[in-house]
Amino acid sequence: GQDPLFIFPKDKLVEEGSNVTICYVSKSHQNNISCYLEGVRMQGEQLDPNVSVFNLNHVAFIRETGTNIYCKPGQGDGIKGTVLFVSKVLQEPKDFSCETQDFMTLNCTWDPGSDTGLLKQLSQSYTLFESFSGKKTLCKPKSWCLWQVAPESQDMYNFTLTAENYLRKRSVHLLFNLTHRVHPMAPFNILFKNVSATSATMTWKVHSIGKYYTLLCQVELYGEGKVTQHNVSVKVDGAHLFSGLEPDTEYLAQVRCANGDYFWKWSEWTHQNFTTAEAAPSEAPDVWRNVKTVQGRCVVTLFWKPLSKPQAHGKILFYNIVIEYLDRTSVSEVLSIPAPASGTELPLNQCSSQIRITASNSVGTSPASVLVVSREPGNEEVEEERVKGTEDGFPLSWNPQPRHVTGYLVEWCEQPRDPPCDLQWKNLGPNVTSTVVSSDAFRPGVRYNFRIYGISTERVPYLLARKTGYSQELAPSDNPQVVMTNLTSHSFTLSWKNYSTESQTSFIQGYHVYLKSKAGRCHSGSEKAVLSDDVVCCKYKIDNPEQKTFVVENLQPESFYEFLVTPYTSVGEGPHDAFAKVTTPDEYSPTLIRILLPTVFCILLIMITCYLKSQWMKEKCYPDIPDPYKSSVLSLIKSKENPHLTIMNIKDCVPDSIEVLNKQEGTRKSLTETESTKPTYLYLLPTEKRYSSPGPCICFENFTYNQAASDSASCGHVPVPPKAPPSQLGLLTSPENLLKALEKNYMNSLGEIPAGETSLNYVSQLASPMSGDMSNLPTNPPEPALCSEYKMQMAIPLGLASPPSSGSSSLSSITLLDEGEHY
Amino acid sequence: MKVLAAGVVPLLLVLHWKHGAGTPLPITPVNATCATRHPCHSNLMNQIRNQLAQLNGSANALFILYYTAQGEPFPNNLDKLCGPNVTDFPPFHANGTEKTRLVELYRIIAYLGASLGNITRDQKVLNPNALSLHSKLNATADILRGLLSNVLCRLCNKYHVAHVDVAYGPDTSGKDVFQKKKLGCQLLGKYKQVIAVVAQAF
Predict the structure, then answer these.
(1) Does the beta-carbon distance from B178 to A80 stay under 8 Å?
(2) Is B169 within the bounds of a domain?
């Protein structure tokens, strides 16, 4: 051909472990042709420049699709190859065996071993040959074959099983008697008859293997965790009576059979379940009680444990309670509590009573549990003892009782922190004086209380001992809530009265009070302690767990302290994480407070009194209008200087008139520019001769004035004429205008006073110079002094009423009213 | 090597025309009238393009599955064992007229269909457990059959071409196992290369 390279043999089939020679022939003299088997280069032998051979020893089976062998020249791309098919070695059939179930067919089985099928070779075939009959059959399945039994004529069989493939043939032989190879079929139609509470009869059928053969059947019964086994000989139908069964119990029964004459193999199991009938409960319920008095009446709470399955003998339907009062004064009571209740509360008419409890199922009633409730509560004053729990539970022991007891009982609460506390109890015999109480419900750090009762022959329980303990003590997880009181500069008091020692995670042995201070000194009664964070503090120890107050003393005033109260137990202290802070007060502050507070109080009291009585005080001390009759000055003058001085009577006061110079508004004249103005007269009070005169006048009844005084007083109070021009009114009523007027007067006073420009200014002395519009007067300093001037309220002779000294500047400038212009 | 062998024709008839794709071309007389058994699809060229794209999308996966199933030395000597040097593969000119391209496509599909049939047959014997490969080969052959029918419709309806001379690849039935594996690998390598060009041309 045209190919430059040929490889031989092509598609060779060999058995695993064979030796194979591969050769190639090339057209050209190439020395650098390399050949590979599954990628691994083969080392060959060059026979001549064109031919090389490769000897492969013990070739291995790699895959069913063959092993690729190829060669490629050093140059060019002409890869040539061949496929070597390596077959697995045909194995001899193993475990060749034949048996019959019905004497009609023989079922022969064997283990064929590995399959030798390949692309170039079919899987091995099996042939069954029986030498006595000379029959032969080709077995299509690889691991079993059926052989028809010759009827009644042949007992012995000699089989040859031959396995064959393209490369090899293997055979095995088997000689046997047919009756020794009987493998019965599984029994069928299992039935149970006469099923009672304690017995049942099982029947079953078997497939016949001929009337001359007897089957041996094996019966097994599973129930209540036990297995019982029985052998039964069977011809056609089998039957077996199960006895000693438990009532109301489910059982599993199964049966299998074999040839009874010559055992070969058991048949398959056939099984069936059945349940026995119910029976009356065999045991009295385990009952305990709790007695309490509610409003003077005994209330009994009964608890009972559900009967176990072997005790109940069926489904419990009711719990029956009969209360018999021991003094026979009350009629017995009968109660029926439906299951699955596990307790009930009974208010009793009388405490002394006997309670009988039974359990009932559909068949009958159990024996009764008897409890006697006595009015006497028993020895409740038994001292509580501590008990240490172990991994196995709480070991409890008590002293044997001198009087006869029918037994002992231990009660405890499994959930002491959560009411209802899940009351538990344990009955013990009369000769027992110790027990170990264990429960999966016990938790570390929970305090369990145990009460041990003795049960008298009259069924009356009485308390023998009280024990308390922890299954495992845990260090306290919390510290008490501490209240600080009585803080002074040298001490304070700590109190944690709400801290319950009973509900902690271990037995509280006492308390440690830690005190941190900057000084770092520890006084007597305390010791230095180093906390986990290397902080040094003082530690006070309280050995009595019921002492829940502590006074920290010997403190420095105005100092900062931190304190912590933590319980200590046999397994450690509480956490050191929450120190409370306190600063002691100043040493003198309390004394100062004792003085200052009353003082301030007194001052305040006086001030309030003064305020409330201010009017009275004013009238007494500085009235606005002094009452001459009440004036002490008067009496002083009277007595010492002028005994003739008297107080002016109002009736003696002659109303006077005031001349008002009515000048035009805005006529401010310079000193040189004089303008004669026509004076206007205002009559404050009409004189006798002017009563009839119709001129405009305003009369002020001022009883405090006499004429002379009024003449000498130069006040800015201007009488308003009835028909005064608006300008004049405006000038006088507004402060600004008044100021102008005053200013004008002041200016006038600086120069020569013209006779025609004088004006009358009148100020009533009833008005305070600092009140009303006059408050603006200080803008003109000399004037208010004059206006507020107080004139002694005395009647003095006119001659004595001399004008004030004209040398005083401001006053002279205001006192413009000339004597001659007075009317 | 061009083969119009009479022994191959019956096989091709079974493989390619059993679903009614059209009248078998090789035995159609030269002057026979162009007629299709079924009316052609209205959007025939789109269908042809989609089928070509589908083949192009799966060609590489088929190639990988094939050479992986053959074992060493095929995966590591693709250039020497699976190179696309199939000398008698029908030519294709992408710059030709649509009619020319369709005629050439027809020849390619016919060639591929026959070769794929040989490969499928061989692999069922050589690699009976390579089920993925078998599945992929069958799926590709199915698409090729549909494509051949559509191309024939187009040629017949638009260009009134009733006869196209086709050539087939070598029959592998008489070859040794290694040669069967190698020829199949070469054909699939060539197919992967050509189908990309053809799909681009349409």
Answers:
(1) yes
(2) yes
* Residue labelled with tokens 């021009």: A725
In B, which residues are within 8 Å of A70 by CB distance? 73, 178
pLDDT, mean of residues A414-441 = 87
Q: Does A70 touch chain B (CB under 8 A)?
A: yes
Per-residue pLDDT band for B128 (boundaries 50, 70, 90) equals confident
A68–B70 C-beta distance less than 8 A: yes
Question: Residue B74: which CATH number?
Answer: 1.20.1250.10
CB contacts under 8 A, A 703-732 vs B, are: none
Contact A81 B182 (CB under 8 A): yes
Residue finishing a domain among A323, A347, A373: A373
Same domain as A99, residue A73: no
Q: Decide if A36 and B125 are in contact by the 8 Å CB cutoff.
A: no
Residue B140 sits at the vertex; the CA angle it makes with B138 and B142, to the nearest 5 degrees, is 70
Separation of alpha carbons B127 and B141, rounded Å: 18
pLDDT at B115 (0 to 100): 92
Does some domain include residue A610?
no
Residues of A in contact with B79 (CB under 8 A): 77
| B82 contacts chain A (CB < 8 A) | no
Look at strands A526-530 and A51-56 and give their pairing: unpaired
Q: Closest partner residue to A39 among B72, B125, B178, by Cβ? A: B72
Residue A81: closest C-alpha in chain B: B178
ipTM of the complex: 0.72
Same domain flag for A164 and A255 = no
Q: What was the pLDDT predicted at A436?
A: 93
Q: What is the CATH number for A307?
A: 2.60.40.10
Whether A305 and A360 share a structural domain: yes
Q: Is residue B28 included in any domain, yes or no?
A: no
**Closest C-alpha to A256, from A232, A273, A276, A236:** A232
Task: Read off the pTM.
Answer: 0.50
| Residues in A touching B176 (Cβ below 8 Å) | 10-11, 82-83
**Gap between the Cα atoms of A108 and A100, Å rounded:** 9
For A648, which DSSP code? P
The token duo for A508 is 């509280």
A738-769 exposure pattern, b = at least 16 Cβ within 10 A, e = fewer: bbebbebbbebbeeebbeebbbbbbbebebeb
Cα of A74 to nearest chain B Cα, Å: 12
The per-residue pLDDT for B65 is 93
Which one has a higher pLDDT value, A364 or A731?
Answer: A364
Task: Provide, as residue numbers in chain B, all residues whose Cβ is less than 8 Å from the Cβ of A86.
Answer: none
Average pLDDT over residues A432-454: 91
Distance from CA of A1 to the nearest CA of B (A): 14
Residue A708 has pLDDT above 70, yes or no: no
A176-201 tens-digit pLDDT: 998 899 999 999 999 999 999 999 99
Q: Is the pLDDT of residue B169 over 70?
A: yes
> Are A38 and B72 in contact (CB < 8 Å)?
yes
Q: What's the domain range around B153?
A: 44-201
The reply to whether residue A10 touches residue B176, judged by beta carbons under 8 angstroms, is: yes
**Structural domains counted in chain A:** 7
pLDDT in tens, A303-327: 999 998 889 999 999 999 999 888 7
DSSP element (H, E) containing A398: none
B90: its two tokens: 């029908």
Reported as a pLDDT band with limits 50, 70 and 90, residue A155 is confident
Task: Decide if A257 is inside a domain.
Answer: yes
Read off the pLDDT of residues B15-64 as tens digits, 9 standing for 90 and up.
Answer: 443 333 333 344 444 444 676 666 777 788 899 999 999 999 999 999 99
Among A171-185, A323-337, A479-493, which stretch is predicted with the lowest mean pLDDT? A323-337
| CB contact (8 A) between residue B80 and residue A79 | yes
B window 128-157, beta carbon within 8 A of A: 128-129
Chain A segment 98-127 residues within 8 A of B by beta carbon are 119
Residue A335 structural domain: 286-373
What's the domain count of chain B?
A: 1
- CB-defined contacts A:B, below 8 A: 57
Cα distance between residue B70 and residue B185, in whole Å: 9
**Domain end position, chosen among A583, A613, A635:** A583
Confirm whether B78 is domain-assigned: yes
Burial class (CB in 10 A: 0-12, 13-18, 19+), A234: buried
Residues A578 and A722 in one domain: no
